Amino acid sequence: MESAPRPHYQLTFGILALGIGAFSLLQSLVIPLLSTVQAELHTSQSAVTWVLTAYLLSASVMTPILGRVGDIYGKKWVFVAALAGLAVGSVLAAVAPNLAVLIVARVIQGLGGGSLPLGFGIIRDEFPADRVAGAVGILAALTAVGGSLGIVLAGPIVNALNWHWLFWLPGIATMVAAVGAVLFIPQSPIRSPGTISWLPAVLLSGWLVALLVPLSEAPSWGWGAPAVIGLLAVAVLLAAAWVWSELRAATPLIDMKMMRRPGVWTNNLVALLIGVGMYAMFAFLPEFVQTPSSAGYGFGASITRSGLMLLPSGVTMFAVGLFVGTLTRRLGGKVLVVAGCVVGCAAMAMFAFAHSQEWEIYVATGVIGVGFGLAFSAMTANVVSAVPAGQTSVATGMNANIRTIGGSIGAAVMASIVTAKLEPSGLPAASGYTTGFGVMAAVVAVAALAALLIPSPRRPRTAATEAAAVGTLVMSGDAVTAESAAGETVASELGE
């Protein structure tokens, strides 16, 4: 542990928020501008989608690996390395002369995925115990806000500058965050002993690639294509081999015993299902509202205007994240996840059946921000409380990673539904969007049912018993608050 005075935790939080915020923006900034990038770089529509796919694959692979490396060797410098990779990738993308270089740059940017679990781990190490849930909730909400805010900002940035600045601006923010992390974030005092098991790391990479490539390409290749079926089969085999290797590894990359904890696997299942619905909405709602009204639906919105229609979701997600810490202590994380899924299901149903007026879109995006903001923030806090401190980074990293995998599934399934029936104009039929958003509402409803499986923490029956419990901890020299005592009890109860 460093002997110098440790910086105030609020300064640490500001640096974490800046770096993670830049990574979150880069997840979605390019979505509304793929057609512009396609024209600028003189490539095809199917080829330009790899600008998204490459980033998704890289982040999915690197998030749990860097989380584990941080747990072993110290979170500070691995966090700095993740931000450095994100900055280098952003600069390379900004000056990319062709599609191949841009795709390579997006792969490098995927290193920034490690900032998520490392940031959560740093919070648990550095923050007062009663501030951990709130800080984790805000950062978790920030990752979701970045997804919607990127779509909102893309149009104004391109109109005022050009598409290259979609990478310059996050790159500059990342550089500032990296310098701030070097100067002000203390080295983590908590480590998990061991080394990196490279066979599980390779197998993890293999099955994620084998899964995400066909899910991303199935709408163009066809779900029944031999390549899609073959890659999905390979993904299953590699996933089984990965689990086997993790169980046999002396120092597993991801502890399967940890993943079996009720407080972990239940929240991961909900994250997968919510990811399906959220990414499908972010990917296809802009396309829906940009469709000319002459098609019988849509509003003929510009890129900037379609982004503004998604703005309420980002605002409400972040606003909800500010109160998740307090709500978690009062109501419990399980209640918030269930409530968030129910609210999200209602909003998705609005997209399916109430989309003839612009105000309906604004209301629905605001409502879905409340629902997913509650669920994402509370899920992350649940996972943090369910694992030992030394496994925080890898556990939260896998939760975020599973959400990304769910997003890939959702985007691919939504694309297949929407494009199943095309009008003579070449535009999707209105029924495709209605069916697609209806299916996503059903998926989020299943997420609400899955959230009922999340263990409920035991609470002291009376104020007297709570005070006695805290008094015992204080007398034994453990300087914790009532909230942290409850958190450790939750971790203990969910642990096995």
From TrEMBL:
GO cellular component annotations of the record: plasma membrane
Gene3D superfamilies in the cross-refs: MFS general substrate transporter like domains (1.20.1250.20), Multidrug resistance protein D (1.20.1720.10)
Name assigned to this protein: MFS transporter
Organism the protein comes from: Trebonia kvetii
Matching PANTHER family: BLR6921 PROTEIN (PTHR42718:SF46), MAJOR FACILITATOR SUPERFAMILY MULTIDRUG TRANSPORTER MFSC (PTHR42718)
Major facilitator superfamily (MFS) profile domain mapped to chain residues: 12-459
Organism phylogeny: Bacteria, Bacillati, Actinomycetota, Actinomycetes, Streptosporangiales
Record keyword Transmembrane present: yes
Keyword Signal (UniProt): no
Membrane topology: Multi-pass membrane protein
Location within or outside the cell: Cell membrane
Domain of life: Bacteria
GO MF annotation, one: transmembrane transporter activity
Transmembrane portions of the chain: 12-35, 47-66, 78-97, 103-123, 135-159, 165-185, 197-215, 221-244, 265-286, 306-328, 335-355, 361-388, 400-420, 432-454
UniProt entry keywords in alphabetical sequence: Cell membrane, Membrane, Transmembrane, Transmembrane helix, Transport
